[in-house]
Write a structure and sequence with these properties.
mainly beta
């Protein structure tokens, strides 16, 4: 009986086959998908002439992060599925660049965490933690897109500086029709038996074509029905808290927040002129520490001028009026100026400042108090009627 020879594959052959397989799979994956690592690091020096100290208003100087832009890193990617349809994802983590601490309440991907589908014909659907439509379509028409939170509405009472991200949300954006685009979003509070508790939603539309850009939108957030240890509401909305400054912290037990905003900008040669208006309403109920509805009306105006392709300058003015809630009233006047210098396409340095004056009375822990200044979205309590905030730093993107 003739015996057939045994076939034998040696270790080197196995290793070679495995390597070829991995290279083939890697090439296939690279051909079908695209993943990008990106980020921004922003650090520098900030000085405030008035901050609330143990012995009254005191000056404060610090080396800090996130002055003109939030430091972050992230991953985003797409996978073509055919016929113009692609799967996409984005995860983004914020951090403090001068001490390494995680931002956004310590969340791993607190700035953004989404997965979705995008189509050249049908638009885009995303699910996760993300920005609302007003931020996506209207914010870019304000000074925030050029100089950050220094130019933001006093106290960021209208989410001008996108401090509030939206959890548990699904968002739809239409394709861009010659510069015209719309978005809608809904987020669940995920509370058993209480469909409306903690929910939020928003809609916005924008036109951006040539030198002219116009946008408008509306955002709503329910504060939830969770009672804190001190007896009043603890904000448990799908939308993050907006109550991050002395200007609106007295209304942190609000039952609902409604924000409407319109904005526009126009480019004239090296100059850009912008104007916006917002109406933010903080409503109360039985779990609120205040009564009535506190309304913040704000007008923002700004102008930028590019002295050279590398040097951009800007000025801004914001006026905010608070009314309602025990018939109290406070007024905030804010002036801003800044200059950025691009050292390269990815690295720039800047000097920026803001001055604010507060007039009238507002609420704090249910009590009537004198209104205090707090420039932009930084949340520093001046403990005084006025505050001057100056910053300078370096920003690098990768």
């Amino acid at each position: 009986m003739t015996q057939r020879p045994h076939s034998f594959i040696g270790p080197r052959a196995i290793a070679l086959a495995a390597t070829l397989t991995l290279l083939t799979l890697s090439a296939s994956a690279n051909a079908q998908s695209n993943v990008t690592l990106y980020g921004t690091i922003d650090s520098g020096f900030v000085h405030a002439n008035h901050t609330d100290g143990l012995n009254g208003p005191q000056s404060r100087s610090m080396i800090t992060s996130n002055i003109i832009s939030g430091s972050r890193w992230g991953l985003r990617g797409t996978e073509p599925l055919g016929r113009g349809l692609s799967a996409m994802f984005q995860i983004e983590s914020g951090f403090n660049a001068v001490n390494g601490e995680m931002g956004n309440g310590g969340r791993a991907f607190g700035r953004k965490s989404i997965v979705g589908l995008t189509s050249t014909e049908w638009g885009e659907v995303t699910i996760g933690r993300q920005y609302d439509p007003v931020v996506n379509l209207v914010q870019g028409m304000t000074a925030d897109g050029y100089f950050g939170g220094f130019f933001a509405t006093p106290g960021d009472v209208d989410n001008y500086d996108n401090g509030a991200r939206i959890n548990n949300s699904i968002r739809y954006a239409t394709p861009n029709f010659g510069g015209l685009q719309f978005e809608g979003m809904y987020a669940s509070g995920n509370v058993a038996g209480e469909t409306g508790a903690g929910r939020s939603y928003g809609v916005a539309g924008a036109y951006n074509n040539g030198p002219l850009a116009l946008g408008a939108g509306f955002f709503f957030a329910d504060g939830g029905n969770t009672r804190a240890a001190y007896g009043y509401r603890e904000w448990t909305s799908s939308a993050g808290s907006l109550f991050n400054s002395p200007i609106n912290s007295g209304f942190r037990t609000a039952s609902k927040v409604r924000i409407a905003r319109v904005a526009g900008k126009y480019a004239v040669g090296p100059a850009i002129l912008g104007l916006s208006y917002s109406n933010a309403q903080y409503a109360s109920d039985g779990l609120s520490e205040f009564t009535g509805t506190a309304t913040f009306d704000t007008v923002n105006a700004f102008a930028t001028y590019a002295l050279t392709p590398a040097i951009n300058t800007g000025i801004g003015y914001s006026y905010t009026r608070m009314r309602g809630a025990r018939n109290l009233g406070a007024h905030y006047n804010q002036f801003n100026a800044g200059v950025t210098y691009a050292l390269s396409k990815r690295t720039s340095t800047y000097v920026i400042g803001g001055y604010q004056q507060a007039i009238g009375k507002t609420l704090d822990s249910g009590q009537t108090v004198e209104a205090t200044a707090s420039v932009g979205s930084y949340g520093f309590n001046a403990g005084a009627r006025t505050q001057l905030l100056v910053g300078m730093g370096l920003k690098h993107s990768f």
